[in-house]
Amino acid sequence: MTALDITSLPKVSLHDHLDGGLRPQTILELADEVGLETPAADAEALQAWFDEKSDSGSLVEYLKTFDLTTGVMQTTDALARVAREFVQDLGADGVVYGEIRWAPEQHLQRGLSLDDVVEAVQSGLDEGVADVEATGRRIRVGQLVSAMRHLDRGLEIAQLAVRHRDRGVVGFDIAGPEDGFAPERMRDAFDYLAREFMPRTVHAGEAAGLASIRSALFDGRAMRLGHGVRIAEDITTAREDGDSTYVTLGPVAQWVKDREIALETSPSSNLQTGAIAQWGDELIDHPFDLLYQLGFAVTVNTDNRLQSHTTLSRELGLLVDTFGYDLDDLAAFQLNAATAAFLSLDDRQDLVDQIVDGFERA
């Protein structure tokens, strides 16, 4: 199966950060407009800088690259442009539904309000959808408003998300440094969201382990887990006489599996940030295949297309090359994502039908 074949397939992107999906040339042009210094003067060299800085094996170091991307996203025009190009790039990659997460509180340095930045991003997303549809393709997108878990504005951002739920926002997330900043710190925000019936996904099981996942499920009432790969810490495998392998799920893993709580895995990013370091440092060591074979609701995502120098089609291609997946497997990943999308039941069924139709024609 070639990358071109995968690009043509209908895909669902659930975990894709707006400030991690800028085009290098756009960064240079926006930085020039506001007088922000960049570490490279041309797009190719700037991409190489992101490649180097993102392969540290540390989530903390990985996150430092966002100082540059958020630095150029501080005006309404810049936010709208980045959002528009983001959707254009999703459409070019064959994505038919994308949830785009970002943290509005990181874009207030030049005097914009929280509502201003959400509206600016939505205007860009709408323009991007129109651009994609003008090419004869179909795409739908929604905003996932994220609160930075270390900045203690969770309730305020949750209220922002609810205010805009009928104007493009489809859900809430918490992002940023995971280790040491458990979801329980924002329990008031999650209580409010539950009362308002607002969908929630929570970054957990990336830079921290089972305790973080437990808090996401209990305190955050998470409907999906952002990355979630360290749920594998709650899985025990043992080989006995012969070739038989026995697998035992702990209580957290069993809960996540039984309730089909989607895992928003991002293979390349998980390698870059060290999320799977305890199992190895190559894609073959990623617990993705174990989770898939055990029946977990795994989904495939990019996390940050710029930092990982990737696309959703590339991530799927890497899994095909590593684990030998075929078209049916790729369809399963997309159907898992469609089922977990923060859409109405009818809209999720339409999305499922679109994916099934697209894969049948492949």
Please, could you describe this protein's structure?
- By secondary structure, the protein is α/β, with parallel strands linked by helices.
- It has a single domain (3-350), classed as Metal-dependent hydrolases (TIM Barrel).
- It has 16 helices and ten strands.
- It has helices at residues 3-8, 24-34, 43-54, 59-63, 66-71, 76-92, 114-134, 154-163, 187-195, 210-218, 251-258, 267-272, 288-293, 312-323, 327-340, 345-360; strands at residues 11-17, 95-102, 140-148, 169-175, 201-204, 224-227, 235-239, 245-249, 262-265, 298-300.
- The strands form three sheets. A four-stranded parallel β-sheet has the order 1-2-3-4.
- Strand 7 and strand 8 (245-249) form a beta hairpin.
- The longest helix is centred in the middle third of the chain and has 21 residues, at 114-134.
- The N and C termini lie close together (11 Å).
- The model has no long low-confidence stretch (mean pLDDT 95).
**CATH architecture title:** Alpha-Beta Barrel
* Helix share, percent: 40-55%
Largest sheet strand order: 1-2-3-4
Strand content: 15-25%
The biggest beta sheet, please?
4 strands, parallel
SSE pattern, N- to C-terminal:
HEHHHHHEHEHEHEHEEEHEHHEHHH
CATH class: Alpha Beta
Q: In total, how many domains does the architecture comprise?
A: 1
CATH topology: TIM Barrel
Net shape: globular
